[in-house]
């Protein structure tokens, strides 16, 4: 019989004793790839848009009694011709909602979604249970 590590002997004895259906422990798996999962949300943004009046509205007409009166009349005329409206646009906003993580453990490659970037290695739960032989 091969030389067994003390932990393996203890686990084997515990599983064979009938008290345990499964044994769980934590190990670390190397991370092969991490891809951010980006979600786009659209937020309404309202802005005021004004169209400029014709250049003819800015031209001075007959000379008024005073220069100030003439300028005032022309400004009012120009402002009446200016058209403004509110425009609501949907502005995209991106944020990272999670990470698609590919890792390798026990010779198998797995992919999962995590809420954080695990770095170069990540903790994994390993479960051992007795094999049912019929």
Brief rundown of the structure:
This protein has helices spanning 6-16, 67-81, and strands at residues 23-51, 83-105, 108-114, 121-128. It has 134 residues and is of the alpha+beta class.
Word description of this protein:
Strands 3-2-1-4 form a four-stranded antiparallel β-sheet. By secondary structure, it is of the alpha+beta class. It is 19% helix and 50% strand. Strand 2 (83-105) and strand 3 form a beta hairpin.
List keywords for this structure.
four-stranded antiparallel sheet, single chain, rod-shaped, 134 residues, alpha+beta
- Oligomerization state: single chain
Order of helices and strands: HEHEEE
Instruction: State the share of residues found in helices, binned by percent.
Output: 10-25%
Tally of extended strands?
4
What's the topology here?
Blueprint: H1 6-16, E1 23-51, H2 67-81, E2 83-105, E3 108-114, E4 121-128
Antiparallel strand pairs: 1-2, 1-4, 2-3
């Amino acid at each position: 019989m091969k030389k067994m590590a003390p932990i393996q002997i203890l686990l084997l004895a515990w599983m064979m004793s009938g008290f345990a259906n499964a044994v769980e422990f934590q190990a670390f798996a190397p991370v092969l790839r991490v891809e951010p999962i980006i979600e786009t949300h659209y937020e309404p943004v309202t802005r005021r848009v004004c169209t400029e009046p014709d250049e003819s509205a800015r031209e001075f007409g007959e000379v008024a009694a005073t220069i100030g009166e003439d300028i005032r009349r022309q400004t009012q005329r120009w402002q009446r011709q200016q058209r403004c409206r509110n425009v609501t646009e949907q502005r995209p906003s991106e944020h990272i909602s999670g990470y698609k993580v590919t890792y390798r453990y026990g010779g198998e490659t797995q992919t999962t979604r995590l809420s954080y970037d695990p770095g170069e290695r990540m903790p994994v739960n390993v479960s051992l249970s007795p094999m049912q032989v019929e």
